[in-house]
Design a protein that fits this description.
single chain; 203 residues; alpha/beta; 7-stranded mixed sheet; two-stranded antiparallel sheet; 9 strands
C-alpha cells in the first residue's frame, strides 16, 4: 500500500510514510470488509460515513507539515484511522465525532490499540474544541460548504487548516488555509469527494 499508493504518487514526507506503515488499517474497518482494508479506495464504516482512501489520509497528513510537538485538532473521527496516523507523528491529538456510535467505537478502538495520546470528544465539530485551543494544525475529514469561523479562530498564528470545501453531492476542493497576521491565505490542493460535514439540529 505505502509503495504503490503513496510513494509512487507524490507522498514524500518521511514522518507521514512511517506513520502509514505503522498503523494497521484493517483494525479500523468493519470485519466483513477487512479483506479490502488496504485497497486504494474509501470504505464504508456505517452511519453514512467512510474511512478515507489511504492516499487521501497520507496527502492530508503531509499537508499539515507537522512537527513532533505540534498540537492537532481533527474534525470527524470516523473509525479513528486518521487520528491514529497523526498519533504516530505527534503527541497531542484531539478529535471530535458527532455520530455517537462511531465516537464510542473509535474511542474504544484507539485505547485498545495503545493510542493514549488521542483525546476523543463527542460533539459538533463546527465549534472546534475551544478549551484546548489554539492548535498548530486542524484537519477536517468531511466536506463543508464554507470554512467554520470557530476553526479559524482556534488556529495558531502560522497554523494550517486542511479542509474539503464545496457543494454537497459534488466535487469539492481540498484547500490549505494558513493563518498569518490574523488573516488567512487559502491554497487549493486538489479536487476531492468527501461525505458531508454532519451538524447537530440540521433543518
Amino acid at each position: 500500500m505505502v509503495q504503490t499508493q503513496l510513494i509512487d504518487r507524490d507522498i514524500s514526507d518521511i514522518a507521514t510514510l512511517n506513520a502509514m506503515r505503522k498503523v494497521l488499517r484493517h483494525e479500523f474497518v468493519p470485519e466483513k470488509i477487512r479483506n479490502m482494508a488496504y485497497a486504494d479506495r474509501a470504505l464504508s464504516i456505517g452511519f453514512d460515513q467512510t474511512i478515507s482512501q489511504p492516499y487521501m489520509v497520507a496527502a492530508m497528513t503531509q499537508e499539515l507539515n507537522l512537527k513532533p510537538d505540534s498540537k492537532v485538532l481533527e474534525i470527524g473521527t470516523g473509525s479513528g484511522y486518521q487520528a491514529a496516523v497523526l498519533a504516530e507523528i505527534i503527541d497531542s491529538v484531539y478529535t471530535i465525532e458527532i455520530v455517537e456510535p462511531l465516537w464510542k467505537q473509535a474511542k474504544e478502538r484507539l485505547k485498545r490499540l495503545g493510542y493514549d495520546a488521542v483525546s476523543v470528544k463527542l460533539g459538533d465539530g463546527y465549534h472546534g474544541w475551544p478549551e484546548n485551543a489554539p492548535f498548530d494544525a486542524i484537519i477536517v475529514t468531511a466536506g463543508a460548504e464554507s470554512i467554520p469561523n470557530a476553526l479559524i479562530e482556534q488556529l495558531k498564528e502560522g497554523g494550517r487548516l486542511i479542509i474539503p470545501i464545496g457543494p454537497h453531492n459534488g466535487v469539492r476542493q481540498l484547500v490549505r488555509v494558513v493563518k498569518k497576521n490574523g488573516k488567512i491565505n487559502i491554497t487549493e490542493i486538489m479536487p476531492v469527494r468527501f461525505v458531508p460535514f454532519t451538524r447537530k439540529n440540521e433543518h
